[in-house]
Design a protein that fits this description.
The chain is mainly α and about 170 residues long. It is built from 8 helices and no strands.
């Protein structure tokens, strides 16, 4: 977690031969991004579980003689599931931007396949932009997609968070 993410992605991508097809490269990029992103999410969830297991209602359930599996499924999972769903919807834009960055830099998906990063790479020239201004459309689509996933994550958090629901009841 102490190595900057983009440099780690580039280093992992450099170990993959350039003869890999674009479809396989996309799958490899997703695996690399998942490999990098799981550590921070797992640390947060671990902290949440350690905090929840010391709550009064969990201690009361344990005192009543409920088994560990029952306590996990009835108390701990519902309180962490909303965070996992929200974290997943917020992480998807990071994966999209990671793939776009790799393709833009030439390390991701290659021609003849298409990617937003490849499309944006074409928009680097002022001459091309003045002749074909619609070539910036992938940038706007990236912005809209990232915003949509962030709004979806916020909405899901509001709808699924049990502590948030109690405030309105």
């Amino acid at each position: 977690m102490s190595v900057p993410t983009l440099y780690l992605i580039l280093a992992l991508r450099a170990t993959i031969p350039s003869t890999v097809s674009s479809t396989n490269m996309y799958i490899i990029i997703v695996v690399i991004l998942s490999f990098i992103g799981w550590a921070s999410l797992s640390r947060i969830i671990r902290g949440m579980v350690l905090s929840i297991r010391e709550e009064e209602y969990v201690l009361a359930a344990r005192a009543l003689g409920l088994g560990s599996l029952r306590i996990i499924t009835r108390h701990i999972l519902p309180n962490t599931l909303s965070f996992v769903i929200v974290a997943a919807t917020v992480a998807i834009p990071g994966y999209i931007l990671g793939e776009v960055a790799l393709s833009f830099l030439g390390f991701g998906i290659q021609e003849p396949e298409s990617s937003w990063g490849l499309m944006l790479r074409e928009a680097q020239s002022i001459r091309v932009l003045t002749s074909y201004p619609w070539i910036l459309a992938p940038g706007f689509l990236i912005l809209l997609t990232v915003l949509a996933f962030n709004f979806l994550g916020d909405g899901l958090r509001d709808a699924l968070d049990p502590r948030h629901r109690e405030k309105f009841l």
